[in-house]
């Protein structure tokens, strides 16, 4: 018994040492786990006092305080668990050594006992020591395991008290579903970037992640965007696994996408991810203000949402309305569902048989972004500047200094840019608004020649070679030709060309005085901006004035028989135009009327036949020349592309290309395979008429939707380089489709549908 007591004391002593060692390891881990980058309270060495410090804590035991600062994990519990298991293995090794130590320590005691006491044999002693070692090993194993669980729960409870329970960032997967072109991609882009995308790029499949603060906690949200077309019904479910929250999106501008929520999308997610939470999201809420009659009433939407058991949120990606509330609520819902899925681990879970995981869907390769359709910068101002420098077909002459100097100009431009010159030159007012005609009463020649009109000395008409009437205007002697040239630059281009370095502002002040005489208020504003060193505002003023000049030019001169010198014959109809506009805005027309062509004959009225086009397309081309805008939406946009290429209007081609790409997107919102629009025919037309951006876009669109286009009858039209390009860049690639087949076969083996 003495030996057993001695062994018990030794075992207890050794166990105490092990406990102290583990306690020290705990303190080290607790010290290295947390690094606070803010105010904290620490215990001073060798004292019982606690002190406050603003410096980051390095290696001391913390007494936590409430803080909104960031807490980062520098050593995880998994690492501590590995250390504990490693220590346990060392303790088991020590138990074997302890058995030998007990035997050596016991023998001397046996020889020193009295003869009256019972002695033990070596075999009995070995058996006792072996049993003690075995029991000690089991006790240490259970003790350390239970202690580890208890300490982990205590520390986690302590962290919850500190309101920083989620030390590691939580991850959730957010999936958006809905019909095509309802605004899913714009919704995600506008929320994550705080800006509405200026150029729309249709989504096939896309996913990206971003970090968001929800209730003062960081959350890594993976956004998964999907294609709503029926052509992708097979691939879309591969995006569903491990989804935490689904946003069912529709457009409030129509009932079709809303009806598909209940008839198509809810049954689909009920089949693939029945336990996943979902919310209903109405897109384009800004249309309730701009087009209220076309929007579905909110009460009707809320009724449908209530019947389906869904929370409803209405958003506008364009004006950033309701985005934060919608996504924050959806993410909270996803986090709550994610926590419910997470099961607490049992301390004896290692003895349970692990269930085999479901096969992971193959990673979908990115489809790539469609090429941008770039629009050239307007050349409206530059074109008219060139016409002012070389005034062909001019019909107004300004005289200075008793006729010693003169400047030539065009009545069409002067009257379009200035109501004052419209009164002076005697142009008939527009009949569209009689109220404006009262304000813009013409000034008679008698009054102009009386000297009572400031800035004008005399005005008279003359004929040049008996072909065209020329209006001559004598400018007052107090206005120089140099200053008036700046006035003409402003009228033609919107901004006068004044040197950037204004050491002497006398020229600017003189220009401002003359602008006031001719009632050019915007020119006065430009001069004041220069004087106040705010001339950076002037280019925007010029852009606005050019746009207004183009509108007025269309009103006064576009397709007007009384103000033309060219008649175009298109489909047996007459279209009227001015050579000044045609030569200024179109190099082909300039060569036609200024070179050695029949049309360049200096007759007052020239007639030109235009074959192989429609009246609507040719009028759209002329309107672009007059205004820098064209009614592409109301006309055959492809026909305008053909005509614009023929007459060298590359910017107009770009405008049509951009419009056509958007129209293609709208036409395939439901299904590409059976869409009426002929994208392959559009590709061939674009390549034939130098619409290179449209051709590149069509190739990308066909390649990215290969599985839909290969089922169309017109797919056989692709030949040569077009066929090779589509086969090379097809999406999804064949390698991915093979991986999908393997995945589907494995799921079928497991009884999954």
Automatic annotation (TrEMBL):
Classification via InterPro entries: BTB/POZ_dom, P-loop_NTPase, SKP1/BTB/POZ_sf, Small_GTP-bd, Small_GTPase, Small_GTPase_Rho
GO molecular function: GTP binding; GTPase activity
Main subcellular localisation: membrane
Sequence intervals crossing the membrane: 125-149
Domain BTB: 394-500, 564-634
Swiss-Prot/TrEMBL keywords: Cell membrane, GTP-binding, Lipoprotein, Membrane, Methylation, Nucleotide-binding, Prenylation, Transmembrane, Transmembrane helix
Subcellular location, record wording: Cell membrane
PANTHER family hit by this protein: RHO FAMILY GTPASE (PTHR24072)
Protein name: BTB domain-containing protein
């Amino acid at each position: 018994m003495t030996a057993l007591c001695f062994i018990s004391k030794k075992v207890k002593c050794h166990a105490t040492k092990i406990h102290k060692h583990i306690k020290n390891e705990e303190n080290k881990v607790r010290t290295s786990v947390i690094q606070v980058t803010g105010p904290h309270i620490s215990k001073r060495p060798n004292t019982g006092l606690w002190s406050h410090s603003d410096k980051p804590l390095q290696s001391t035991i913390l007494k936590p305080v409430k803080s909104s600062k960031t807490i980062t994990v520098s050593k995880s519990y998994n690492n501590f668990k590995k250390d504990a298991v490693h220590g346990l293995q060392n303790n088991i090794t020590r138990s074997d050594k302890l058995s030998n130590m007990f035997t050596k320590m016991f023998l001397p005691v046996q020889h020193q006992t009295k003869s009256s006491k019972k002695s033990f044999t070596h075999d009995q002693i070995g058996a006792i020591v072996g049993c003690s070692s075995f029991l000690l090993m089991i006790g240490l194993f259970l003790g350390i395991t239970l202690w580890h669980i208890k300490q982990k729960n205590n520390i986690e409870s302590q962290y919850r008290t500190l309101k920083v329970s989620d030390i590691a960032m939580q991850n959730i997967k957010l999936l958006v579903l809905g019909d095509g072109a309802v605004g899913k991609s714009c919704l995600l882009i506008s929320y994550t970037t705080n800006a509405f995308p200026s150029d729309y790029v249709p989504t096939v499949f896309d996913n990206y992640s971003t970090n968001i603060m929800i209730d003062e906690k960081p959350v890594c949200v993976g956004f998964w965007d999907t294609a709503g077309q029926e052509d992708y019904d097979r691939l879309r479910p591969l995006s569903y696994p491990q989804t935490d929250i689904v946003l069912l999106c529709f457009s409030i501008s129509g009932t079709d996408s809303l009806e598909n929520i209940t008839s198509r999308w809810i049954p689909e997610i009920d089949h693939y991810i029945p336990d996943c939470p979902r919310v209903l999201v109405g897109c384009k809420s800004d249309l309730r203000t701009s087009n209220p009659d076309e929007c579905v009433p909110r009460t009707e939407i809320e009724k449908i949402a209530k019947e389906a058991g869904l929370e409803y949120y209405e958003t506008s990606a364009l004006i950033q309305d309701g985005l934060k509330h919608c996504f924050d609520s959806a993410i909270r819902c996803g986090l709550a569902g994610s926590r419910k899925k997470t099961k607490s681990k049992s301390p004896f879970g290692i003895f349970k048989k692990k269930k085999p995981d479901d096969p992971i869907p193959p990673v979908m390769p990115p489809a790539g972004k469609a090429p941008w359709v770039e629009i050239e910068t307007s050349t409206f101002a530059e074109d008219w500047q060139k016409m002012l420098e070389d005034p062909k077909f001019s019909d107004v002459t300004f005289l200075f200094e008793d006729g010693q100097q003169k400047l030539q100009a065009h009545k069409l431009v002067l009257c379009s840019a200035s109501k004052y010159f419209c009164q002076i030159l005697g142009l008939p007012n527009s009949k569209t608004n009689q109220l404006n005609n009262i304000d813009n009463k013409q000034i008679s020649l008698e009054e102009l020649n009386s000297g009572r009109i400031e800035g004008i000395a005399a005005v008279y008409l003359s004929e040049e070679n008996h072909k065209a009437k020329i209006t001559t205007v004598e400018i007052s002697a107090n206005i120089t030709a140099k200053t008036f040239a700046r006035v003409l630059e402003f009228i033609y281009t919107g901004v006068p060309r004044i040197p950037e370095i204004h050491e002497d502002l006398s020229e600017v002040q003189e220009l401002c005085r003359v602008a006031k005489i001719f009632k050019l208020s915007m020119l006065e504003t430009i001069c004041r901006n220069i004087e106040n060193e705010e001339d950076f505002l002037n280019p925007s003023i010029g852009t606005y004035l050019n746009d207004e000049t183009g509108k007025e030019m269309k009103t006064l001169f576009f397709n007007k028989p009384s103000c033309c010198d060219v008649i175009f014959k298109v489909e047996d109809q007459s279209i009227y135009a001015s050579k000044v506009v045609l030569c200024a805005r179109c190099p082909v027309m300039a060569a036609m009327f200024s070179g050695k062509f029949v049309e360049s004959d200096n007759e007052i009225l020239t007639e030109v036949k235009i074959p192989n086009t429609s009246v609507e397309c040719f009028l759209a081309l002329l309107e672009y020349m007059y205004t820098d805008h064209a009614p592409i939406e109301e006309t055959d946009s492809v026909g305008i592309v053909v005509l614009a290429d023929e007459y060298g209007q590359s910017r107009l081609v770009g405008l049509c290309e951009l419009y056509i790409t958007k129209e293609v997107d709208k036409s395939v919102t439901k299904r590409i395979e059976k869409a009426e629009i002929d994208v392959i025919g559009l590709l061939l037309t674009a390549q034939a008429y130098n619409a290179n951006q449209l051709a590149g876009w069509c190739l990308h669109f066909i390649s990215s939707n290969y599985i839909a286009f290969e089922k169309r009858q017109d797919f056989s039209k692709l030949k040569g380089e077009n066929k090779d390009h589509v086969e090379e860049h097809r999406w999804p690639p064949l390698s991915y489709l093979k991986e999908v087949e393997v995945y589907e076969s494995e799921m079928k083996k497991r009884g999954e549908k």
